[in-house]
Design goal:
Layout: E1 8-14, H1 22-32, E2 37-43, H2 47-56, E3 61-64, E4 78-79, H3 81-86, E5 91-95, E6 98-102, H4 104-115, E7 124-128, H5 132-143, E8 148-153, H6 156-169, E9 175-179, E10 192-196, H7 214-217, E11 220-225, H8 234-241, E12 245-247, H9 250-265, H10 271-284
Parallel strand pairs: 1-2, 1-3, 4-6, 7-8, 7-10, 8-9, 10-11, 11-12
Antiparallel strand pairs: 3-5, 5-6
Helix pairs in contact: 1-9, 1-10, 4-5, 4-9, 9-10
The chain binds 2'-monophosphoadenosine-5'-diphosphate.
């Protein structure tokens, strides 16, 4: 592309940053939309200085990745309420006097579920895991008004902490926490939406799953794994073998980018354009099918 005096700059701050897929997503979208915009990686260990510097340099928008997703929050002019509850921000949108923070990681999952027709509202939902990703998914479940939420984690205290945090914000919300081996608390006659957020089954440990027992998978209506490599995890395979529908994590990655791009540019990315980006991502990540 031609970079001119008018070219808008977006980018991503993080450390490390070399393996980020975001430049591929955003430079492709800028090209197909015919926008005078470039997206670049900024490797930095100093999130505070980076946010101030980006504003000063008239940067239009930024993504934020590891390890800065929490550290940028005090530097923001405004913050989206879901991102504030989660306590993590991955997208900064330029506003008057600073940046507004969003968490498009979780909004990306929300869009994926809507497009794949996986309901959350009034559903019984299970989250496997209680790390940073699980916390974000748990707040999404509360804001989408699921009927019940069960958090299962190897370290039960972390599941309890998320449950308690949510109850402080969403009073009366039906959330419970158990150790992962206690999945038999799930009711036999119910069907659940299960969201797998641990890193068990991540490449190269493709044959591992957080739970193997078929009686657990028999209760799964929809199984969503946020892992995108491999494209079909062992968890997804076990969901399918018990008759449930399974979904992988690549579209969450796709839509977190699409949503950020839409926020920065005020444009709307069509499903056709999103699908072109998806193919690029799969190629880059060596994901077939
Ligand atoms: P992220 O930010 O991606 O959520 P994280 O905060 O490191 O990553 O969380 C990793 C999650 O995977 C945790 O729920 C972790 O369980 P613990 O809280 O008990 O550590 C879970 N996890 C990692 N390895 C696991 C394993 N072998 N079996 C079960 N759960 C595991």
């Amino acid at each position: 592309m031609d970079i001119r005096g008018t070219t808008k700059v977006c980018g991503i701050i993080g450390n490390p940053i070399k393996h980020s897929m975001s430049p591929i997503i955003h430079n492709y979208l800028a090209k197909v939309k015919g926008l005078d915009l470039v997206y670049v990686p900024f490797e930095t260990t100093n999130a505070v200085a980076a946010v101030a510097g980006a504003y000063e340099l008239n940067v239009l928008g930024m993504n934020v990745t590891v390890p800065h997703k929490n550290a940028v929050i005090p530097q923001l002019k405004e913050i989206d309420s879901l991102a504030a509850n989660i306590g993590a921000v991955n997208t900064l949108v330029r506003v008057d006097g600073g940046f507004k923070g969003y968490n498009t990681d979780i909004l990306g999952l929300k869009r994926q579920l809507e497009l794949e027709n996986v309901p959350l509202k009034d559903m019984d939902v299970v989250i496997v895991g209680a790390g940073g990703a699980a916390r974000a998914v748990a707040f999404l479940c509360a804001s989408e008004k699921v009927k019940s939420l069960t958090i299962l984690n190897r370290t039960v205290s972390k599941a309890e902490e998320i449950a308690n945090n949510i109850k402080q914000v969403f009073e009366g919300f039906n959330v419970s926490a158990y150790t992962i081996n206690d999945y038999s608390v799930l009711e036999n006659e119910k069907k659940y939406v299960v969201i797998q957020t641990t890193n068990v089954g991540l490449h190269p440990n493709n044959l591992e799953a957080p739970i193997y027992d078929k009686t657990f998978y028999d209760r799964v209506l929809y199984g969503v794994d946020i892992i995108y490599n491999p494209s079909k995890t062992k968890f997804m395979q076990l969901v399918n073998e018990s008759g449930g529908q399974s979904f992988g994590g690549i579209k969450m990655l796709l839509y977190q980018g699409v949503l950020a791009f839409e926020l920065w540019t005020g444009t709307s990315v069509s499903e056709e354009e999103a699908n072109e980006v998806l193919q690029l991502l799969k190629k880059e990540l060596n994901i077939d099918e």
